[in-house]
Structure formats: structure tokens, C-alpha cells
Amino acid sequence: MSETATFGGGCFWCIEAAMKELDGVHEVTSGYAGGDTENPTYREVCSGSTGHAEVVRVEFDPGVIAFEDLLRVFFTIHDPTQLNKQGPDVGTQYRTIVLYESDEQRDLTEAFIEGLEDEGVYDDDIVTEVEPLETFYEAEEEHQDYYEKNPNDRYCTFHADPKIQKVREQFEDEVTAD
Hints:
By secondary structure, this protein is an alpha+beta fold. It has one domain (3-173): Peptide Methionine Sulfoxide Reductase, Chain A. It is 35% helix and 22% strand. The chain has six helices and eight strands, in the order E-H-E-H-E-H-E-E-E-H-E-E-H-H. The strands form two sheets. It has a six-stranded mixed beta sheet, covered by helices on one side. It has a two-stranded antiparallel sheet with strand order 4-5. Helix 4 links the parallel strand 6 and strand 7.
């Protein structure tokens, strides 16, 4: 049995690469969600005119890794206090967002964020949007498994590698053994 969870926190290449490290994650698909344009292209989404965010849809086995564990990883590998910005990427398409697929995911996400705020984990307020997933559009093939296909890409080495390292170090019990 598997479930899916959808997250956006900057460039989807980086989130995809980090989530793929986790045991119990079967597939991670880069795409677009949260906007108004039907079947948007990468160029359209990058323009900021579609309302979509770059997101990843994570297919996972909840018997191996819980949705809450995915939330912990997600909120560790990006800055949820940055409004419409992650690293060098600026615009609403790079916003921090959890697109829930059930009332349970919504409730767990809201409780998780409230817990982070209560603990004072971040100096600034968390601006992560929590919205229902209405439609997920799969990104073009060249954006799927981008890190795996382009490990020496300068953007990946500078932005994805640190996220992957963080997952391997902070979540070593959840990382897939190679």
C-alpha cells in the first residue's frame, strides 16, 4: 500500500533529490501544482504567471516511513520562513507549500507547523502554505530525476548536495541503504 504527499520548497530538483534518499519512498515526481493554468510548462511556471509552485509528489509506503517523517525532512531541507524565495530562486513558483491530499494530512501538517512555532525552531514566522491538492501536473521529462542525470550540474552541486548531506546526516535511520 502506498500514499502520496506533495511538497514545494524552492527548486523541485533539490527537494526531489533529497526525498529520494529516504527508505520507504518509492518514487518522487517533479511537477507543478497550486495554480490556475492547465498543463503548464516549465517556462510558463518559471515566469511566475501561472500561480503554480514547483513541487514534488512523493509516493511512499506509510508502513516504512510516516507522513510526519516526510514533514520533518521537508522542514529541515528548506527554509519555511522565506516568502516566495529559496536560495537564489525568487518568485511565487518557489514558495513553501504543503498540498495535502486528505484531512489527515492537513491536520498533521498544521499540527507540525504549530509545534515548530511553539518550540521556536525558527527565528521568523513560518510562511508555508497548507492547501488542498487540486491538480498535479507532471513536469517535463528533462526535469525528472534531474540530480541523478546531472550530478555535476553547478546548481545541483551548490544547492542539492547540501540538502542530500543534511538528510544523510540528520535522518540516517530513514535513509535507504545502497
